[in-house]
Design goal:
By secondary structure, the protein is mainly α. It is 65% helix and 0% strand. The mean pLDDT is 78.
């Protein structure tokens, strides 16, 4: 016949060996490329609240009054889960900051 004495199982074994070889090559390349990726930082980078506030003012997202109000809250140690200080007290603090700047 045309196989010249080569049995069918030998063709099957060669095909499996070829597929196995290319799978091994692909796994090795993937392992080498994965090692080159930078690792993410262990802890998330947190920014200082005043830096975030300064950035919002610089981008024009808030005006000077809002900036001073929120800055005062941050300096007083206000957290998001605490109720906000009464508005008249905040307005008075904003007026005091304005008079200091003048």
């Amino acid at each position: 016949m045309w196989m010249y004495g080569t049995a069918w199982w030998m063709w099957l074994l060669m095909g499996a060996g070829t597929i196995g070889f290319w799978v091994l090559v692909a796994v090795t390349v993937k392992a080498l490329l994965d090692d080159r990726r930078p690792e993410p930082p262990a802890t998330p980078v947190t920014r200082d609240p005043t830096q975030v506030l300064d950035g919002r003012l610089a981008r024009g997202e808030i005006d000077a009054e809002e900036y001073l109000r929120v800055r005062r809250l941050i300096q007083q140690g206000h957290r998001a889960d605490q109720p906000v200080v009464d508005q008249p007290v905040v307005d008075q603090a904003v007026r005091q900051d304005r008079s200091k700047q003048s």
